[in-house]
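JOB MANIFEST
job_type = single_chain_structure
chain_count = 1
residues = 152
[input]
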Amino acid sequence: MNAKNYTLSLLGRRAYTERMLRDKLTSKKYPKNEIERVLALCKKYNYINDYDYGKNLILSRDRTSPRGRYALVQELRSKGVEEKVITCIFQDEIFATRSEVALAGAVIRQKLPRYATIKKHIARQKCYSLLARRGFDPEIIRSAINENFRQS
């Protein structure tokens, strides 16, 4: 299978960043000039677009497993999205209005039933640790915890 067919086969299954595709093609030992030609072709026809990939990744994470900005930025970097693209993504209107406090609160509300039988201060610690692992800013974590534990 040549590089173009392999790439189109991959893109037919799911989205990839440019770096992810380059790494896959390199691991299959395709010549560097053929890899660059195929990637240029994919960019030309908008088959790969790191900006769209990043937006879709964040929207997906917000639906399935909410994460803070730190974790999202780190995940995008690990997938090869450039810093300037990441900055543009977070300046987009969709994400400029994204409330991390609300997302953190949703995560806490999801976990609160599990913590009903333990002491309140331990439940708060567990929520803080969970949100910190998910990349939320400490101030956002404190706000979300105070808001949700005041209600419970």
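[summary]
The chain has three domains: 3-44, 50-96, 100-151.
The mean pLDDT is 94.
exit_status = 0
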